[in-house]
Amino acid sequence: MMKIITDTLENQLQQVSQRTAGLTDPEIEQRVRAIIENVQKNGDDAVRDYEKQFDQVDLTQFRLDDATIDAAYENLDPDLKEALEVAKANITSFHKKEIEYGFVDAEKPGVIRGQKVIPLATVGLYVPGGTAAYPSSVLMNAVPAKLAGVNRLVMVTPPQKDGINPAVLAAAKIAGVDDVFQLGGAQAIAALAYGTQSVPRVDKILGPGNIYVATAKKMVFGQVAIDMIAGPSEIGIIADESAKPKQIAADLLSQAEHDKRARPILVTNSEQLAQAVSAEVEAQLQTLPREEIARTAVEEQGFIAVLPTIDDLFTLMNAIAPEHLEVQLPNPTDYLSQIKNAGSVFLGQYASEPLGDYVAGPNHILPTSGTARFSSPVGVYDFVKRTQFIQYTGAALAQEAQYVTKLARVEGLEGHARAIEAREEN
Question: Where does this protein hold Zn(2+) (predicted)?
Fold first, then answer.
């Protein structure tokens, strides 16, 4: 059963503020650091040894040939292929609206200022493997990258004894991935960050992974850019007595089945709904194929909070800053202004969270562990950088030179001032 909390808002906010992400620990950091240093030093040989050790696969080559990828696409179940194509179309139509353009400002005589938006040259996409396959994550990363104009998309995914999941390879082809490497874990992140004899060095690494992948991404940040340090999946639901317990329970379990550390949360002003949802969660768990995982998440990480007012519900949920937020209230769009911190928002009973995971179009790679307070979903803007430019005529410089030299000397930077004064004679 999900635990039901009826404490005061103040006490619940205090509990939320004490939560830490818990993304890594010193022992894991030490192991990952050793892997990264070995890959830096020994390149392909180190990566090959780690793949044999961790994935029990002896690799003769890392890059998959195009024929293997083409065959996976051609032989894919037609219904699954259609689902991937529909998802790509919806992701494309949504993310097209995020495309940024540079600008030129020439409003002041003699002064031209501007900004260029430049695609990243090479991007690495990490796609988890193991017991689950995530072709949807391929689309969510690759489609915005291609819209941004990234020249080379390099995908890494853990090797499998029976070959990489065909749906993942088909998604890579559909999304326009340029290279697929069968590499996983911290060694794959290190290979992307520093480059090896076979793996190109990239400018940014995106995509979720286990705690070793997350730790490696944190450690190589600065050498390359990263999207985020991803934590366990989260879903927060705000609902009142009008919500349907069966639907709420199903949505909570849709995220609980991801990971034993996933966080399913319901906040409501209805004690009756809280009790009904708790009972419904227990009933649905008994027939869920991933019951063990989901039950651990529900019992150890999940909870139902009961508070007296709708405003209290939003105050608590904004403090939690969930990865996914469902608003199961009448006229849900009326409450958009009250949502301050959430990765992706689902409005009304028909906008179930899995829609966002697969086909709605908005990205499903979202900030977790409360980082929605300051982070955003992955989008086209993650695959570009911006550079500025300025041009002055002599007359325009003469108008503002005195201000530059004044500020430079206040800061004790005489050389800055003299660089401006060197042009005065012209």
Answer: 255, 258, 357, 416
